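Example for tutorial group B:
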């Protein structure tokens, strides 16, 4: 009997985060579904429809801000999203840009099989990432966002 994988340990970054993902894997439950959403350490800033905006508890290196927009329903494939979902994500993205004065960055989503995506959590979620600026060069520092 095959058990469903909601997290992919091999895609988890080193250190504390990897330990958390390993603990989640043992539960066999999705950490982003509302009934299991207990590993996250940051406040929820805003909710719109079936989505909410929060900081990433383990932000990527070289980010000045790293937010997550997480769906309340468990979905793993982009094809499962409807127009309302994209409108809600757009609203939350614009809200974050305005309220946190984000001057530039990226909105990123990975979907489908985590063997292909590089994601550690299969539950659909968007990342809003804005890099730190190198004070010497006045250019953005590279944020490595793995896909694959």
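The residue assignment follows.
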């Amino acid at each position: 009997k095959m058990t469903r994988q909601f997290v992919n340990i091999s895609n988890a970054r080193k250190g504390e985060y990897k330990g958390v993902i390993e603990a989640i894997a043992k539960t066999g439950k999705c950490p982003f579904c509302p009934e299991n959403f207990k590993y996250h350490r940051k406040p929820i800033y805003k909710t719109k429809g079936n989505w909410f905006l929060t900081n990433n508890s383990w932000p990527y290196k070289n980010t000045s801000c790293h937010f997550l927009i997480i769906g309340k329903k468990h979905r793993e494939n982009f094809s499962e999203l409807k127009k309302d979902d994209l409108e809600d994500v757009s609203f939350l993205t614009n809200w974050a840009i305005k309220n946190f004065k984000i001057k530039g960055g990226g909105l990123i989503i990975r979907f489908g099989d985590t063997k292909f995506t590089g994601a550690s959590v299969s539950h659909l979620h968007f990342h809003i990432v804005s890099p730190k600026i190198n004070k010497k060069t006045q250019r953005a520092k590279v944020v490595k966002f793995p896909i694959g």
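The mean pLDDT is 94. Compare this with the pattern of hydrophobic and polar residues in the output above.
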